[in-house]
Batch of 4 targets.
Target 1
Amino acid sequence: MPLISAVSEATDVALESSTTDAVAAEARAGLTAYPRTLAPWLFYDETGSRLFEQITQLPEYYLTRTERSIFAAHADEIIEHASHNGHGLPPTLTLIELGAGTATKTGILLAAAVRRQGTVVYQPVDVSVTALEAATENIRANVPGVTVRCQVADYTSQPLPENRLPNTRTLALYIGSSIGNFSPDAATAVLRNLRAQLLPGDQLLLGTDLSPGPKKKVTTILAAYNDAAGVTAAFNRNILARLNRDLGANFNPEAFAHRALWNAAESRMEMHLVSLAPQRVRIPANSAGGSLSLTFASGEGIHTENSYKFTLGRVEELLSSAAFCLTHTWQDSRHHFAVNLATAI
Ligand code: AVJ
């Protein structure tokens, strides 16, 4: 990965201290609030990213493999529609990806773009340098014809890459139901931030996990967040282990139970960590403030994640709230997951 390895060492050090400051601020705000919360981005340190990769391979976690199967069945059609949507002559597509991770599913779409237009520029955006290195490595090794241009940024608030080539259109990929971690208002804000970087006629491909329906049972969704092997439980508890590692806190992660529950009123999965006994936890003084002494009653929880599930009506509403117009939806036969194409208006 010559493109980024030259800068990554210096970048890593700068990123590390700014990340630790953000962890300190988030932990203080969330753990002194009532009810207590920790934001899901805290899951994804090195250990958590590895655990998430394991989750995507679990038999119960249908999301990743279902979305991949939709890409495998419809990639050419998706790229074709993205090229013809919007205004004017079919241009060359540039693919940018928000929160690229390791880009394992993206290769299927990139290969289809290469089939259609010969070559393609791919711009993964992620806060994690390690993830961008993995994405670059993966795409360079597996999909010929792709030029990778990495961008280290927080796509929820920072501007996206602006170096647009003439007569190209952007296809922004926001896949994996990552949008599901955000409340309705925050999801609109994330898509508006994206929309602000696009031109009318640019495209968005949005992956959304679907609400329960005739072919999708609540128990299927519950199992995906409470797997038999306990990987999701380990992923959830790792958020406390991370606070120990990054902030010198003294959580005993094993003294908290993993709870996954379905909130029907909000159409979302929730993950919590529930204290198994009365206990006290200390977080030493840090950049965000003085030392914290937290007491947990037995049964008291920390809310660590919401994972919203969408109806197609809700997808359309969310997209239009951010000035996108939904044009196509592809689903698996069981209606578990949807891949949605929208045009920036
Ligand atoms: C990466 C946010 C899509 O909500 O399903 C997996 C994260 N949490 N198991 C999801 C997750 C528990 C995942 N997203």
Target 2
Amino acid sequence: MLNNLDRIKDTSLHSLVVGAEEAASWIQHGMTLGLSGFTRSGDAKAVPLALVERAATESFKVNIFTGASVGSDIDKLLSEAGIVHKRLPFQADATMRKHINAGNHLFVDQHLSHTSELIRSGVLPTIDFAVVEAVSITADGMIIPTTSVGNSTTFVSQAKNIIIEINVEQSEMLEGLHDIYEPAAQGSRQPIPLMSAEERIGQIGIPFDASKVKGIVFTNYTDSPSPIVPPDEETEEMAQHLISFLRQEVSAGRLTNKLAPLQAGIGSVANAVLGGMINSEFEDLQVYSEVLQDSVFELIDAGKVNFASACSITLSQEMMDKVYGNLEEYRDKLVLRPQEITNHPEIIRRLGLISINTALEFDIYGNVNSTHVSGTKMMNGIGGSGDFARNSRIAIFVTKSIAKGGNISSIVPFVAHVDHTEHDVDVVVTEQGYADLRGLAPRERAELIIENCVHPMYKKQLRDYYEEALTRGGQTPHVLEKAFSFHANLAKNGTMLDKETALV
Ligand code: COA
């Protein structure tokens, strides 16, 4: 039964149940919506889809704020319907990407820990409607979120109006998995009292002001599974290089075989590289991340990971069936928190995380571009990679050394867009090897990166660039008129290869 009133335990709210179309009709041109959802999980689905339907006969635009990317093709449909004025803080949809890059709507690429602060402090527009997916509403007035928490806590506390989507497909067993804690405003805040990945510091649900609840919608849409990209030879080699680096840290006495809490970013590469740890000697591991992908559950199943904290669970269909079909087995090993807490600099620095994120490209000095293809076109967004890289104990970036069949070198003289500066990047890993950049001067970094990480196709070309740069001198030598020559070659010839100098 769709309208399962048993899931609204505060019976005084029963009269607020409405259909998605009616709820969507309250949303007006110029409003700002705070939608639940983080990397295809726990997203509000029925009201955004009803809003898209409304756009067939009516012209309007709204701002769409979320936790991160959303599933059910919602970003695609919102973009196609032409109803997005501004979108933030992250997306990962191919159609929305096209609309952003065509300038059809605005996109603010934001550190994922920042959105809540900017809403709370009034820098971003007030949220007119928070639309959040829930498992249920408790008798004492809390929203139990589903498979992600994202920014829902702040959306609910700051919005003028709240619409709750109770998803009857989401298991009531999710109750008790969440740990909801919202820091006070800046300037009157206490330290966040989280001392370890498995600790709980808040409540099991999101508190709300009942007078702001305008409607409750029942839905049964399932979360969108993430596409499975199995590990390949190169990601396995990258995992081996990462393990070699971590082994070096253990033999130097800086880490033990328990390592330190691990964070791994989105995407197939980070997932495969983390999964590669299954065959390592490391054990009794903890994960303190923003999203838990398949690899974390494979590591839990293998007895390698004993606890995982995040703000979202994003799985392939096969892993979803396994995890949600056996939630009892995993419950005591998991916690879901607001993204403001999972990505908080204070906690990341306190716990001393090892963070592993994916770069599109990095340069010979260690600056990283995670977001802009050829320096101008948005891919997905910075996500949490900046929150983690800047504050972790060891910030690691992984990428294959070449892309698009070798027409692109992921190591370039100068990145065409900077997300993570050389100051925030400790270790870079490709299938060729790794470069530990900590404590190295720029000239030492360039030598090591070219030697260890660059694909053989591009080694001579990068070395020639660097040697010419050395003749110009400087702390960070460059030939400025050639710093983007790789990208210029790509735009002109369809390949970064400079045919005369490359060793093929
Ligand atoms: N220039 C242009 N395109 C490149 C490239 C480069 N230097 N390097 C890779 N690509 C392309 C790949 O060819 C692939 O294209 P396709 O989709 O047409 O096949 C695409 O980028 C994705 O690359 P892939 O190697 O499959 O990696 P991924 O799925 O792991 O995604 C990122 C990599 C960088 C796009 C992704 O990790 C991301 O968006 N990161 C930023 C956010 C983040 O790090 N969040 C972390 C906290 S959760």
Target 3
Amino acid sequence: MKFPYNEKVLEHFRNPRNVGSIENPDGKSTEGSPACGDMVSVYIRVDDETKKLKDIKFESYGCASNIATGSIITELAKGKTLEEAKKIDWKEASDALGGLPKIKTHCSVLAVDGLRAAIQNYEEKHGLIKEKIPTTKEIVLKRLKHVMNPLAGLDLVRTNLVSNIEVESGTVKVEVGLPEEHQFANNIREEIVEKLESLWDVEKVVVKFVT
Ligand code: FES
């Protein structure tokens, strides 16, 4: 069988660098692709003084392109400052891999988005966000589009599981249309809290399961 990938992509796919997670990471993200429903998580360890990426790991539930891109961007980002790492784009990743098939662009975009979101998570947690926009329902909804519904492999919003959002004096309340005892309820709650608690003006996140 002929693969649509070059040797370098296949090599990174077969022996991906920096695979895994980091315990108590300084920044973390999980991004899903609307194009295919796949997911990637990125974990970073940052030197607080120099703002350089000391360590970076990724986990991919995507295809060969996504895994190869996760491998190459973690290699490219390691040792860089956050500002430098933010500039890595899918083109740089694709070039470093000797080219990816056009149809696979979204897979490398997903890995790059994962890296940027992990950096953003670090910046939010450390009060480094320059533009302090007050959190609104729309902002919450946007973030919830990055929380997966494991039953469907799509996000909570697109699978109509978010039944209500309230934002008031630093508290965000989210209602999810699943029973409290659902097998994925705890995972979903953790992911929602993780996505929202780093917002600069959010002090408390309450997730309620309602059916
Ligand atoms: Fe889903 Fe590549 S097809 S990440």
Target 4
Amino acid sequence: MRTQVAIIGAGPAGMLLAHLLAAEGVESIVLEIRSQAYVAGRIRAGILEQSTVDLLRSAGLGERLDREAFEHRGIYLQWPDERHHLDFVELTGRSVFVYGQTQVQKDLVAAREAAGQEVHYEISDTVLHDLESDEPSVTFTDSSGVAQRVTASVVVGCDGSFGPSRAALPDGVRRSWEKTYPHSWLGILADVAPSTDELIYAWHPDGFALHSMRSSTVSRLYLQVPNGTDAQTWSDDRIWESLATRLGHGEGGWKLTPGPITEKSVLPMRSFVQTPMRHGRLFLAGDSAHIVPPTGAKGLNLAVADVGLLAPALAALLLGGDSRLADAYSETALRRVWRCTHFSWWMTTMLHATGDPFDEQLQLSQLRWVTSSEAGATGLAENYAGLPIGF
Ligand code: FAD
Ligand code: DHB
């Protein structure tokens, strides 16, 4: 097979890149190790930044989003006996949107299917070749067991945190930074109306809790748990009791309404950045180059920002022979990546219990500052609601 851009991974980064490239007149083939149903069903991110929504709308992907997403003006930040609202619209002029990654993925798959996009699902043995030449290629075994090769002008690794692309950069070229955290999140989906109009991020001595949502009838909630926790050891009753305690059920008359839990899983947390995001004819986008802990809701938004930069850069390179944007891609993308890496680390550090009484006092001091000082609140709001793509 031959194409202009071989894209490895059909998650949000890979499918959105294929979509944006097609709009520029650039052909691509997408290769995915999992089935279409598996990729579509993964419960992951839930919050879209204003710039992500703007990009999806301008790419013709905003129709269902505009009908179904909830636009939120801000978030609540709280600790025992205190709850404060940060109004991002007042502070920065930008809002955020509740629209699950599963919905974004569904819209992308529908749009690419309608356009006849070539996507090979359930492949195996993905190997990248000749990345420093003008004819790089990817070999794989297709879903019927036949060996295949896609030869392209460019290969883009959108293969997430476990894919082979990031390791395809030579040892002497790649550099990485990593931090693992001593806690994980236990996440649930529940068939119950959210008990809040906007997200609640709660500091509590027992551990962090977050009340998010997916729709007017489905709630998404998270609890800080120790690493290595088995989700099945947390009964539904224990989960709702811990959420009620940490989210402040009964404080100021607020109530958390429990409901049937339909999904339960544990997510480990880590920060990871690999540079450069381009080597020869290989480009990296999304989780293949960087992972953030989920506290700042940045993972999906960063993946979208990467491909928002990469698509016009590849179009200029492949259609006009102009390499300036492609040459600047890694440096430009990494400015935002490091900003979001810092913000996600900072939110995580401010909100998760460590068991250290000194940390606890610093966290509470920081929370009081960001909820009472306009300067503190604006810093959080600007980062959470998101910087413009290309920042
Ligand atoms: P992915 O969505 O991981 O897509 C990569 C694709 O590449 C996958 O479909 C994978 O199957 C495929 N692939 C891998 N190896 C190969 C191969 N060898 N050959 C071909 N294809 C391959 N972010 C938030 O902002 N908020 C959250 O609440 C949140 N929750 C998360 C929960 C979980 C369990 C995980 C794992 C992530 C979560 N994230 C969250 C992060 C967010 O989902 C990711 O940042 C986002 O999915 C990145 O998109 P991506 O396309 O770069 O990578
Ligand atoms: C969700 C996940 C997050 O990591 C976050 O910070 C906010 C919301 C969610 O899944 O809804």
